[in-house]
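Saturday, quiet lab. Running sequence design on the structure tokens for the scaffold JK sent over.
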């Protein structure tokens, strides 16, 4: 994808049969639906879970105006990227530039203007400062999250709900297997977005002299793919490096192995079962 298009966030999709006419060309109305749906991905890229963010801000974004210009058609099975970029934040409005791209070709482009409103009355409200700062900061290249390291006593209040949601509620791991005495002696990490929401966590403990072990890596489903999990992993590796460890290992769920491979970890040994879930040991030098 050419950097000339200038979009920090790209939401990808493949054109489905139901979205095209008899000649295999995408119906024009679908582009607007795609862009409007992609706004959730744009917020996710900023580690801002859309519904939770709007609830915290006590507001809602509603489309006020949408303009699109069609340059070339997309067709069945095309792999497309939807680019979104915040270009202006007014008193109560937010302007989002959008484009539908196929490789380096721009097929459709335009602008969607959202208004921040009171959900009970539908009347415009000023865009909250936290949302304004998050949007403009993201477009300026600022990190979407910060990671705090600390003890279990310091971070349990934020880490425990994340682990409960991911491991106990989502993955059905028994609670008695999730909580152990090791938490008290671990270095814990919690990632927070720019609105202060705790969204991801992990822990670091000594495995054997010279080798640290990372575990309990958990990212809330609503922000997976935002990079916030990698921020937690990097912070824990940094803590291990700072205390002189030579390598770090972890037990990765096989579904997450590709994530750790991208971070430089390599598998070691056969797959094994842990809490009813397939895992593989992975290791990386520091």
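Result came back. Writing it out in full:
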């Amino acid at each position: 994808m050419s950097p000339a298009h200038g979009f920090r966030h790209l939401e990808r999709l493949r054109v489905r049969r139901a979205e095209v006419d008899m000649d295999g060309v995408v119906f024009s109305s679908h582009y607007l639906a795609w862009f409007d749906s992609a706004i959730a991905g744009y917020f996710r890229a900023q580690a801002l879970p859309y519904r939770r963010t709007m609830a915290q801000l006590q507001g809602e974004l509603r489309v006020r105006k949408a303009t699109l210009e069609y340059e070339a058609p997309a067709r069945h099975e095309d792999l497309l990227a939807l680019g979104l970029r915040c270009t202006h934040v007014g008193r109560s409005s937010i302007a989002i530039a959008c484009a539908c791209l196929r490789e380096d070709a721009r097929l459709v482009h335009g602008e969607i203007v959202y208004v921040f409103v009171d959900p009970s009355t539908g009347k415009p409200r000023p865009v909250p400062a936290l949302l304004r700062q998050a949007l403009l900061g993201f477009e300026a290249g600022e990190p979407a999250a910060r990671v705090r390291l600390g003890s279990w006593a310091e971070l349990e209040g934020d880490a425990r709900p994340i682990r409960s949601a991911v491991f106990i509620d989502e993955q059905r791991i028994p609670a008695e297997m999730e909580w152990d005495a090791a938490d008290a002696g671990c270095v814990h990490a919690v990632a927070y977005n720019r609105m202060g929401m705790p969204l991801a966590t992990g822990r670091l403990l000594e495995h054997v002299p010279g080798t640290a072990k990372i575990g309990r890596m958990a990212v809330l489903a609503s922000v997976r793919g935002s990079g916030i999990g990698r921020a937690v992993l990097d912070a824990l590796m940094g803590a291990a490096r700072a205390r002189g460890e030579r390598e770090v290992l972890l037990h990765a769920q096989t579904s997450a192995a590709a994530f750790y491979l991208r971070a430089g970890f390599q598998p070691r040994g056969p797959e094994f079962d842990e809490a009813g879930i397939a895992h593989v040991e992975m290791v990386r030098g520091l």
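Notes for JK: The first helix runs from residue 29 to 45. The longest strand covers residues 105-117. Ask whether to fix the surface positions before the next round.
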